């Protein structure tokens, strides 16, 4: 029996959940971990360090520690549902099967706006950065270049995407190690900056209170978006019941620790956080310690990390969600978007569609508008996922007792509370665009389900 035939027989996959196995099962725990780390971007704090530092009295490492604690409950919910339903679709499939098929559609609809617009946002940022370095080339030209590269890589197979992720992650980590090496020399050998270890970036008792923790949670929760994307690759993973959940939690914790280390070293180089440029603060600190070489190196690597690596992962995730919802015939154009390429065994049409849509969105919508859609969609779906854990495991499956109450009620309730707090802090415009998108989803769902009376055929085949 061939490897592909053997993979198709796995009862832990789509076959046992009402679907034929169409995607190629080749990904390992390492592949998923790398994918999650690339999606979350190990050097992500560099772009927001100046802003976060000013809002946290220079305690940026503590902000990310709070973020790990705050988001781990939602990560545990993803882990638990990925073992129960190891299929593509991520939160759409989890809420669909664990709570209600129609609520699941609306959850998928909300995460769609996050994942569909995220690549365009990342391309736009990278285009602006490169245009500032090379003004003669318009930002949109860079956007087009990145979209063509990423669409080709994702369309040609998940193995090629995994290899590309490995290389891009290596580039990011090498640049980060160079920065840390320069920082160690600058602070501990040359005696500049703080001249040694300092507790100020980690804990300042005069400033750490409930208000600080609330602000830190709001900042960090949005910084950790991306770990959830691992679950979209469940049907292309060799042993999804074991590896998807483990990789989700591992990616969150590892990236959180990396965030803390790099921001702590930046704080040692430049302890005076007041007056840092909100957009370029980290890069200015890098120039202070390592000169123009380190300054330009980190800018270029950030462009690669965001415009290629992060966007590649985001485009891969959304194409799987589009595929999952389309094979259930719940989206307009489902017959087109739900098609799998016979040679590459990827959701080819959905991948190309996302690439074309990214071009349009990057051209038409402002970065500010895209951010509002992305944040609202992601956090709304996270809240519904945590509620699903409680309803499905604690009430429907009656998994209670002390351990069950902690894992199936307390943890997801804490996850819901953290996300709900951040969600409640959105401005009015974010709620307007978010609920506008939800209203459109309610209409589409009503049409596709004939008044919310029909459910996907696969639900009845479980």
Overview of this protein structure:
This protein starts with a helix and ends in a 14-residue tail after the last helix. The chain is globular. It has 16 helices and no strands. The protein has one domain (24-375, 425-461): Amino acid/polyamine transporter I. The longest helix is centred in the middle third of the chain and has 47 residues, at 281-327. The protein has helices spanning 3-8, 29-40, 45-55, 60-84, 91-98, 101-133, 139-155, 158-189, 210-223, 240-269, 281-327, 334-337, 348-364, 367-396, 401-424, 428-448. The protein has 462 residues and is mostly helical. α2 crosses α8 (158-189) and α4 (60-84) packs across α14 (367-396). Mean pLDDT is 85; it is low at 1-12. 72% of the residues lie in helices and 0% in strands.
